[in-house]
Design goal:
3-stranded antiparallel sheet
């Protein structure tokens, strides 16, 4: 997209440089190039040079703030997933309460059996033999 003002352009460029300086130690090429780029941007916009380098304390403060935001986001996502799972369970319980759920397996004699894992009738065996001979290929 396009920037509607030069200030918006400068704000994005400043943020890009600031993030690079926050997340890279000051002895890396990334940090050093971000300082150079920030100084160039400042010169273009008539601001003072050498304003770009961030102090260690400032970088640590920004990192901590971002970590807190990321932790909050993870907690919020977890809460949302739990709410969605509870809602899905409620819907399933309401709509499929009589549905039996199971899977096919082999017993110790290699016979195919249906293992009920949900909604078996009281006293009903959880394992039932299944005849699949009608599904044999021609």
């Amino acid at each position: 997209g396009e920037y509607s003002t030069l200030k918006n352009l400068k704000d994005d460029a400043d943020l890009m440089c600031k993030n690079c300086m926050v997340y890279n130690s000051d002895d890396t090429i990334f940090y050093k190039e971000a300082v150079k780029l920030q100084n160039y941007i400042n010169t273009l916009f008539g601001e003072k040079k050498n304003k770009a380098a961030l102090s260690h304390e400032v970088r640590e403060g920004i990192r901590k703030k971002n970590e807190i935001q990321e932790e909050w986001m993870a907690e919020e996502i977890t809460r949302s997933v739990k709410r969605a799972a509870a809602e899905a369970k409620d819907n399933f319980d309401r709509l499929a309460s009589d549905t039996r759920i199971g899977y096919l397996s082999k017993d110790e004699d290699s016979n195919t059996v249906l293992l009920n894992i949900m909604n078996a009738e009281p006293g009903e065996p959880t394992e039932k033999p299944v005849d699949l001979s009608c599904f044999k290929p021609h």
